[in-house]
Design a protein that fits this description.
Mean pLDDT: 80
Number of strands: 14
Largest sheet: 10 strands, mixed
Order of helices and strands: EEEHHHHEHHEEEEHEHEHEEEEHHH
Number of helices: 12
Shape: elongated
Strand content: 15-25%
Oligomer: single chain
Distance between the termini: 83 Å
Low-confidence stretches: 6-21, 384-419, 422-442
Length: 442
């Protein structure tokens, strides 16, 4: 899908016809109407960033229905930018005068057939396209202002609920919600909005940190290529407090700031902190879900800590343990004999001072806004609405999200298992108790 070489600019009137039915529906049936005129500058920017050349260079699909991959990928990207989140919604590219503005538009059914030909290897090819496109965009636009001084890579996962019984990869994980798991890595600076650097779509029952070290490695490479040549810090919650994740960060010569789990070694280290706490006051009060109240005052201290002491010496990491303690809730306003605290530990090797490093770690919550935007956008109908009226067959549910930039892979379908033979009691020809005849002596 490309911008048309010659367009008629004299028709700028936009109108919409209406069909009177039991529900009124707006129809773009005017031949001079363009429903998504904003696509023109966006696709022009993608063209200048080399999206077509990247797809041609990295995407190789030799399957029926996968021809003209460049045009189909561009059409999918354009459709998703315009708000489409299902195969059926891709029809908006053929409304009104869209064919006069763009060339190479494909039917929704054609795009769906193309998506169903993708495998995990093709998804990785699209990942290569996505990362290089982000790099080219950063060179042409100030997306990451100040990345040469300080930048952050935030990693987190979320569960998108699914409904029905035929969703490939759907399962229940740590949240207890049946759905699919999305692992996400964003790149941002203190003065810029986050951009998605890497993503994976995984089965719902997976562990949060499964495969995270590989995604972190990819995201850090992309971040440095985007201009993050200064201090680069990975931020994550306690689910990613693992030696493999930290080892991947150290191999990339970056810093980490990860919430430490309250394991016995961590609690012992916190108990050994002397009375060197520094009082802080939040600029904005923090809502505590556990205590169901606002926290505005806290204290921070720091100590040297060696993590993963039970593992081999090569996997042990010595760095800073920055601890924040908050007074525990006292709903009855009783006069306590001593103050009870709750502790939040951050394991980091950030070069920032203690208070700045602790404040910067709390800004990791910015990734939650990205997740919320995804769930209201590209993931809104993953894989289908709650009422079960999916846009197409279940085959569209997983592959469709791997068509854009960045694009996580779809979980592989569960292999069909042979039916288990019936139990011995079920193979008997004896009638059930309900069907037994009456006893002769009854």
């Amino acid at each position: 899908m490309q911008l048309a070489t010659a367009t008629n600019s004299t028709h700028r009137r936009a109108s919409a016809g209406c069909e009177s039915r039991h529900d009124v529906t707006a129809v773009f049936d005017d031949p001079n109407l363009v429903s998504c005129a904003g696509l023109a500058p966006v696709l022009k920017l993608a063209e200048r960033a080399g999206l077509q050349e990247l797809v041609t260079e990295h995407v190789r699909i030799d399957k029926p229905g996968a021809g003209n991959a460049v045009l189909k990928v561009l059409a999918l990207v354009a459709g998703l930018i315009a708000g489409a989140d299902s195969i059926e919604d891709m029809g908006l590219l053929r409304h009104g005068a869209m064919r006069r503005l763009f060339t190479g538009i494909r039917a929704p059914s054609t795009l769906g057939t193309f998506l169903r030909t993708l495998t995990f290897g093709h998804v990785r090819q699209l990942d290569a396209v996505a990362s290089r496109l982000l790099i080219n965009l950063c060179r042409r636009a100030p997306l990451l202002a100040g990345a040469d001084t300080l930048a952050y890579v935030d990693v987190d996962d979320t569960v998108k609920p699914t409904f029905g019984y035929a969703k490939h990869g759907a399962g229940r994980g740590y949240t207890g919600v049946k759905g699919l798991n999305v692992l996400l890595a964003t790149l941002s600076t203190p003065g810029s909005r986050p951009v998605i650097a890497a993503a994976r779509l995984r089965k719902g029952s997976t562990n949060s940190a499964k495969g995270a070290h590989r995604l972190v490695a990819d995201a850090l490479v992309t971040a440095k290529a985007c201009g993050a040549t200064g201090t680069l810090v990975l931020r994550a919650d306690s689910a990613f407090y693992q030696s493999d994740v930290i080892a991947g960060v150290l191999r990339a010569k970056a810093c980490f700031s990860i919430t430490a789990r309250q394991l016995p070694p961590v609690r012992k280290a916190i108990a050994g902190i002397a009375d060197t706490w520094t009082a802080i006051k939040y600029t904005h009060a923090v809502w505590d879900e556990q205590a169901q109240g606002w926290i505005s005052d806290a204290e921070v201290a720091e100590i040297t800590f060696t993590a993963f002491g039970s593992k081999a010496k090569a996997k042990q990491v010595t760095a800073r343990l920055i601890v924040r303690r908050d007074p525990d809730a006292n709903p009855n306003n009783q006069s306590p004999l001593f103050t009870v605290y709750r502790y939040h530990a951050v394991f980091t090797n950030s070069p920032l001072p203690m208070l700045e490093a602790e404040k910067a770690h709390r800004a990791h919550a910015i990734v939650e806004q990205v997740i919320a935007d995804l769930k209201n956008g590209p993931l809104a109908h993953l894989p289908c609405p709650q009422d079960g009226s999916g846009p197409t067959a279940p085959g569209w549910s997983a592959p469709r999200w791997r068509s854009t930039s960045p694009a996580p892979p779809a979980p592989w379908p569960r292999p069909s298992m042979p039916k288990r033979p019936p139990a011995r009691s079920a193979r008997n020809s004896s009638p059930s108790r309900r069907g037994w005849p009456a006893r002769p002596d009854a």
